[in-house]
Every structure is written in structure tokens, then in C-alpha cells.
Amino acid sequence: QVQLVESGGGLVQPGGSLRLSCAASGFSLENADIGWFRQAPGKEREGVSCISGPDAIRSYVDSVVKGRFTISRENFENTVYLQMNSLKPEDTAVYYCAEVCPGDYYAVSEYQWWGRGTQVTVSS
Questions:
Q1: CB–CB of 39/46 below 8 Å?
Q2: Which of 11, 18, 54 is nearest to 34 (CA)?
Q3: Core vs surface per residue 90-105: b (16+ CB within 10 A) or e
């Protein structure tokens, strides 16, 4: 069964850090496009970052990340990570990973396999 499972969320104070994990089963991440997205209460889902293909090309939604997040991949773990630093209250959201990059708008609109996500709450 092809599946992506997010984990690593939690409650963190402003300025803190979290590392989110996106673990794959049923297929190899090594050649895939894996994107991170988030959805805050009352808002639409938005893209955060993507790591693509065997060369692990990274891209970020600058308006969201602003140099604070880093995406990475560990092939032997079949897992993609999102390191989030300098977290702000506006980063509070449910974070999802998906086999699609934020920049591929049509593919994102057609994507139907969203998981449960992992809740990130930034609050003092």
C-alpha cells in the first residue's frame, strides 16, 4: 500500500524549532517529488517546500518559509524531513506531505491522497 505518514508536530514556543517527518511506505521516495503543505484554521492549504527527484532538488515558498525551513531526504530511511526554525505563531497549522510539489498547481488541485497531517502549534 502506497502511503505517506506525517509526524513530529507539537507545541513549541515562538522562536523554537521542530523537525517534521514524512515516512513513505509502498514506494521509494528517492525518485519522487515530495512536497510539504500546511493548513491553518479557517485558511486554505498552502505550499511550503518540495524536494524533487534523484538529485534532491529543493524548492521553497519564500513567502512562507523566509529562510527558516530546510527540507531534506534520507533515502535509506525512505523519509523526507522539514526542519523548521525560528517558528512564529503564524506557523501554527496542520502540516501535510504529499507526492506533489507546491509549484505544480494543477497536480496539487487534483491530488486526492492527503494524509492526516501533523499539528504544529506555536504559542507561548
A1: yes
A2: 54
A3: ebbbbbbbbbbbbebe
